[in-house]
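Extended Data, panel c. Modelled sequence:
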Amino acid sequence: MSDTVQEFNDYRAKMNDKILADNNKIIKRIFNLDTNAFKEGEGVLDKKTKELLGLVASTVLRCDDCVKYHLESSYKEGLSKEEVSEALCIATLVGGTIVIPHLRRAHEYWEALEEHYSQG
């Protein structure tokens, strides 16, 4: 059986390494800014809140890779399926019906996360 979560993370890591190997200062700064913006203790919002904000923004912007990233970060931060579902409801409200396909894929990926992390 295919492990969707592992495949996504492997691909993301491989391509990030290739992109960063180009040694482009602007790209490196963007990656660094993104990493630091979501850190715990960076600003007044806790990491769980930042991940939910990232999830909503990513859903509204219809970026499936970003949705997957923030879903996994939310899962690792201990957010419940109900908390994530409520955030996705807000994203659908804000984004409109055009985000429904992304909502479907987000629910599917959350199930993949539950399966992936239950295996150990």
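The two ends are 15 Å apart (CA to CA). This feature is highlighted in the accompanying rendering.
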